[in-house]
Amino acid sequence: MNLSRNDDELKLVPEMTGGRVDYRPQNHRRILCIFPRYSRSFGTFHHAYPLMGTVRAFMPPQGILLVAAYLPPSWDVRLIDENVALATDADYAWADVVVTSGMHIQRNHINTINDIAHRHGKLTALGGPSVSGCPEYYPDIDILHLGELGDATDKMIEYFDLHGSERPEKQIIFQTEARLPLNEFPVPAYQHVKMQNYFLGSVQFSSGCPFRCEFCDIPELYGRNPRLKTPQQITRELDKMLESGNPGAVYFVDDNFIGNRRAVTELLPHLVDWQKVNGYPLQFACEATLNIAQSPKLLEMMRDAYFCTVFCGIETPEPEALQAIHKDQNLSMPILQAVAALNSFGMEVVSGIIIGFDTDTPETGDRILDFIRTSHIPTLTINLLHALPRTPLWRRLEAEGRLNHDENRESNVEFLMPYDEVVEMWRRTITQAYEPEFLYERFAYQMTHTYPNRVAVPNSPARLSRENILRGLRLMKNILWKVGIQGNYRDTFWKLAGPALKRAEIEQVIHVGVVGHHLINFAQECGRGEEAASFYAQRLREKEAAAKTPQPV
Ligand code: SF4
Asked: Is the CB of 213 under 6 A from ligand 1?
């Protein structure tokens, strides 16, 4: 572990000592918040949506829901997630100001929304991770909000109040100098979304991560000393989310759920109590470093709170590669032992895997497949290495002259191995990892070694609600029809599902059917060259965006 490296490169933004400013607006404003469409990727689980009826998008847009909740309560707010439905001309015409947010992969759609808003004569503002990292991507937007919620947000709101739709002569930048403490964050404005449109619900308990993996921008964007909400805030958010519908499962979108172990140890008993009082309406999932496996007490509490999935950035099974990328926290115990420990507490591990490290050899793909076989992990995001701005990796590659900005490439990294060999190794690894037989073997392992270790949840009114029963029936019908009868791997499906249904393991069959359907279909598209090799690769997504981008008025 190397926690002191490059400390001087981190400009930590302090928190606002006085907390939130109670701003009283002088004017009434209408704010249209738009979350831009994102392109499909492995992690959006879009092939599962047709099995799920009302689901249109992966998770509700936390950032823009938060901004919507932070705006003066007397203002009118309309929130549109373009992954669910596009904003219409009437929406733009209604608004004084159009606010948007997003990640780098949404860059094109963000700029398109800006064009449409300007054609309607509206003031535009952009915040969120992409503009905070690369403001130069957005030269035409009227107001840029850089950094997290804080004093910049207050200045931006004041500007909206005083100027309405009136556009400035040149771009204005508000940069957060003091962040709002997380424990003063409002409850995200869940009333503006329908939870049944989402594959998963999401909440955020903390922000930041104490580690410094070479490829990751989290420590520089959000700090290394995780900032926290209170347990009461989290349970209030869960209550409010359920008022907008029960998504069935909620993902803690924290950069690292155990970034502050003491805080999470204090949170978990509150989650356990909340589940007991409410009848265990939700499964929980989170993202955490693999050294979570060394804390059995924490894992026990997570099991009691009904955590069923943990995403761990394993990245590579090769120890020398982990050392080279400064991910030493994955070496604190043998990786297979860590995965088995999580499984023993009922938690299925989802793993991030990256191909293209400097230490990779022609054998790396086979080693990854061996690791998948022996770890029995069903779901792995297998991506090509991509250098993000504001990371140690970016700076190193820039100094070595190894950044390549050709958008026709699958990655901006000049690998040490020949480019074509690396891309081919990625394609072979992902397609073999998701061959139906291989994937279903791993799911079968989870059904016997992981799922039975979960807490026995009661048949409460919340779990047996009419809405839940209808959703379960619809899912089962779709899985049986689209996978069990029409699917090109139906024999594999029935080998697992037949005996499981006889044992009445209906929830497990639904989970395997839905997740497996996406993984298998996505990998088959990768094999045909129809999907990009990196979450950040733009090439195919640009084509798709061009085909689907709504036309400005
Ligand atoms: S990859 Fe994960 S563990 Fe590493 S710095 Fe980023 S958030 Fe932290």
From this structure: yes
CA–CA gap between residue 271 and residue 249 (Å, rounded): 14
Q: What is the length of the chain?
A: 553
pLDDT in tens, 9-22: 445 577 876 667 77
What is the predicted pLDDT for the residue at 553? 32
**What mean pLDDT is predicted for residues 144-173?**
96
CA distance 329 to 332: 6
SS3 letters for 362-424?
CCHHHHHHHHHHHHCCCCEEEEECCCCCCCHHHHHHHHCCCECCCCCCCCCECCCCCHHHHHH
Domain coordinates in residue numbering, the chain: 30-175, 200-448
- Domain covering 30-175 in this structure, CATH number: 3.40.50
Give residue 72's pLDDT: 96
**For ligand 1, is residue 34 a contact (CB within 6 Å)?**
no
Task: Give pTM, 2 decimals.
Answer: 0.90
Binned at pLDDT 50, 70 and 90, residue 221 comes out as confident
Q: Of all protein residues, whose CA lies closest to atom 4 belonging to ligand 1?
A: 213
Letter for the amino acid at 203? Answer: V
What string of DSSP letters covers 305-365?
TTEEEEEEEEE-S-HHHHHHTT-GGGGSS-HHHHHHHHHHTTPEEEEEEEE--TT--TTHH
Mutation to probe ligand 1, out of 212, 218, 225, 326 (largest number of atoms < 8 A from CB): 218
Return the ∠ at Cα 196 (arms to 192 and 198), rounded to 5°: 85
Q: How far apart are CA 422 and CA 384, in angstroms?
A: 8
Torsion of CA 133, 137, 143, 149, to 10 degrees: -20
With a 6 Å cutoff on the Cβ, whether 222 touches ligand 1 is no
Does 219 contact ligand 1 (Cβ within 6 A)?
yes
259 CA closest ligand 1 atom index? 8
Is 70 exceeded by the pLDDT of residue 5? no
Rounded to whole angstroms, the Cα distance separating 286 from 255 reads 9
Phi and psi at residue 166, in whole multiples of 5°?
A: -60, 120
Q: How far is the CA of 143 from the centre of ligand 1 (A)?
A: 30
- CATH number for the region 200-448 comes to 3.20.20.70
- How close is the Cα of 206 to the center of ligand 1, in Å? 13
Mutate to test the pocket of ligand 1, among 213, 291, 357 (most ligand atoms within 8 A of CB): 213
Segment 442-462, tens digit of pLDDT: 999 999 999 999 999 999 999
Instruction: Decide whether any atom of ligand 1 lies within 6 Å of the 256 Cβ.
Output: yes
CA distances from 550 to 33, 36, 60, 108, 126 (A): 17, 11, 21, 11, 19
The model's pLDDT over 180-208, given as tens digits with 9 standing for 90+, comes to: 999 999 999 999 999 999 999 999 999 98
Average pLDDT over residues 89-110: 95
